[in-house]
Design a protein that fits this description.
Layout lengths: L1 H6 L11 E3 L5 E2 L2 E4 L4 H18 L3 H4 L1 H10 L5 H21 L1 H8 L5 H13 L1 H9 L8
Parallel strand pairs: 1-3
Antiparallel strand pairs: 2-3
Helix pairs in contact: 2-5, 5-6, 5-7, 5-8
Length: 145
């Protein structure tokens, strides 16, 4: 619910199956998250993958096409993974800010594991997560029937 409020996108699936694994890389399709020693790492990883799932919900790619085109043009020099994670990390940062406080954004998510993720976080920090969300939302097409 909160991810929809932040992003402007809607959930279509009535339920989302999540596989929990002992070892491996998390991913969104099918939603698969590994066990972490630290509870916050588990929650942050699950949240990250759920935002990917939200983007992929029926109709959301079409509704957000103009937004994605904007980000892909604006950051055309950046790697593909960085571009797709800029709005995702902005939404994630807003969620953390809302529930844990602004200081927790950097504390919880300061060192993403991959260079392309780190670059997207750097862009989000420099431009401000709320500004990026605003740019994303203003390009969404009204609800499709």
């Amino acid at each position: 619910m909160e991810l929809s409020k932040i992003s402007g996108l809607e959930w279509k699936a009535k339920e989302i199956i999540c596989y929990i694994i002992g070892y491996g890389r998390p991913f969104s399709d099918p939603l698969t998250v590994r066990i972490y020693k630290n509870y916050n790492d588990f929650i942050d990883t699950l949240t990250h993958e759920l935002i990917h799932k939200l983007f992929d919900q029926e109709g959301n790619m079409k509704r957000s096409e103009k937004a994605w085109n904007y980000f892909f043009r604006k950051y055309k020099q950046e790697p593909h993974t960085t571009k797709i994670h800029i709005p995702l990390h902005a939404i994630h940062a807003e969620l953390i800010s809302k529930f844990y406080g602004k200081k927790d954004i950097e504390k919880r998510l300061q060192i993403p594991p991959h260079d392309q993720y780190r670059l997207s976080w750097k862009i989000v920090q420099e431009e401000g997560h709320q500004n990026i969300i605003r740019e994303f939302r203003k390009r969404l097409v009204k609800q499709l029937s």
